[in-house]
Amino acid sequence: MVKNRLLEYIKMVDNAQTVEDACRMAVIAIAEHTRFSNPSFFLVDPGGESLNLVAHVGFTPGTLSIPRGSGICWRSLETGEATIIENVTKEKDYLPGLEGSCCELNVPVIWRERKIGVFSIESKVPGAFLADDVRFANLFAAILGSVIVHLEAETRLSESLETLESTARYRALFLKISIELFAIRDGRAFLEKIVQVLSEVVGYAKVYLFLRETPMGPMWLRALRGKDIGEKAINDVLEFGKGLVGKAIRTGTAVFCNDTRSDPDFYMDDESTLSEAVLPIRFGDVLWGVLVVDEARPDAFSSADMDQMSILAGMIGVMLENIDQVRRIREDFALMEKLHRIIATAAGERNISGLCRETVRLLREHTKYNFVLISEVVNGATGESKIIASSVSQEGSEVILERQSAILCDSGCGLIGQTIRIRALLNTPDVRTAEHYVPLSPSTLSELDIPIVFNERLFGVLSIESDRISAFAEEDERVMSILANHLGTLWAHYDLLEKTEKQALQDPLTGLWNRRFIFDRIEAEASRCIRYVSLFSIVMKDLRNFKNINDSFGHPVGDRVLIETSSFFQRSLRECDVVARYGGDEFIILLPEADFAEASRMMERLEKDIVKRKLCVESVPVRFDCGIASSPADGRETRALIQTADERLYKVKAANKKIERGK
Known about the structure:
- This protein is an alpha+beta fold.
- It has 18 helices and 20 strands.
- It has helices spanning 2-13, 19-33, 71-79, 131-163, 168-180, 187-202, 231-238, 243-251, 303-346, 352-366, 398-410, 414-422, 474-504, 515-532, 546-553, 555-572, 596-612, 638-662, and strands at residues 38-44, 50-56, 65-67, 83-85, 103-111, 114-123, 206-212, 219-225, 255-257, 275-283, 286-295, 371-379, 384-390, 426-428, 446-454, 457-466, 536-543, 578-583, 586-592, 624-631.
- The longest helix is centred in the middle third of the chain and has 44 residues, at 303-346.
- The radius of gyration is 37 Å and the shape is elongated.
- It starts with a helix and ends with a helix.
């Protein structure tokens, strides 16, 4: 729905004649999509001293002009961030807008650091604005910013065209460009049309366009008319800055030469060239490339030619930016669709490890990212982390993950550690110049690290690496931040679920596992032993004199004895052994790979060790009675084994009582 609404707006706005038309279309679209809303749009005046109302839907705002520094709108514009006011009656900066308004959403419209205006969206419904509304309004703000800049540029170009009284060839050129080129949205077709018009309409012998495919991409020869240029000559001017082309790229200024024979900077790629013009193609701070025109006669370019070609270069820059913006929006939508599928699929995992592994796998398979990993925070102060999923590790390859984690830890924790320490997104365009970078992949040239946070708790870091310099643009940051936010929410959910499940399986007094857990664990061990023809033993154990302790010292002391005894078991048994509280003063112990004889020796050792320990009641020594059952010697069925061990325990208890009475 959001995608369709935005694409519909992009189609509609192509017909906008003025900035005001584009703004009206935007507020109508927001009103139709955002629930319970009454949007308006304020545009910064040319002097930058006020925000003036240019469009609104559903109501007439009480404020038509906002002086600089006043109101929530200016605050949102200055910070560059969307602002939700949950209760406007408690906001001192609120200016009268919608009568009866409860809450307000302000979204700044900023294009390449130029502050254009603010969407002010009000509602009479408390809590009307959700995160989806903010994302939708932010997307509209980005599109509207681009549209306004392009409309202003087209207006300036139109005004320039009206005053042109130049030669017939330039009138024909600009007429053809106005009719044909502004309708083209495909980059390759656009470039071919440019050189065709310059060659056929204006009559230039040789026309070359050296351009980038993206604002941060490498420059190369993208289109030409006339004599071809060899790859060596292209490398010389682009890689080593030779000739007038290299000079124009370095300085960012136009270069006109009407006699190449006397210009030491001219690069002799074609001896027939006697005049050359090189014009930077810019949009804002982005140098898209250069337009090169060569002529085989001296003094080919008049001052009027220079002016018109400069206008043409500016026009090309506007149209390239427009085409790139459409491309980025389409790529953004495509990536958002993939992101939605990734989140929906990964959310089906049942634990944190599975969630992270599935997310990494899907990102690697369905996006352009070369190397993806997710780390869990170990120490927020030092930046230490543990890698729990990596695109270079197959599922179950824990050794690789441990090795990568060790490399990070031993080398200062890397850019992941820096992200953990600053708790903020870190985009590193060139890792070769990054102080904290630690190489995990030899081909990496740039890295994007996004903290995974929920309710201010930092769980981990999503790291993406690329084999290209400056590979991650604002779109990547935004989309991956959305993914990280979803991961944070799911991570917090799984973390809470694991803690809740663990608490449900633990004895609240001693912290040992409870009988529900130990029954499941014995069942699993029994199945394992059948598969691998192995053995195990079960021990039922209780405190011989526990009733005397409770009667003599009270139940609080009895509880302390149980707690300290449980701690003694956990310290004294093997790592593979499992001990649980069965009930009252009874305990049950699972001993994998231990037969009856081995289990008996282990229990005798525990009996000797507990005598040496001083528990909280020193005057009453703690003693054990125990019954042992072994599988497969005593059977394989879990409950039958437990019953056998329990019966043997009571036989031992009865025998020990006779001995005590005999004394």
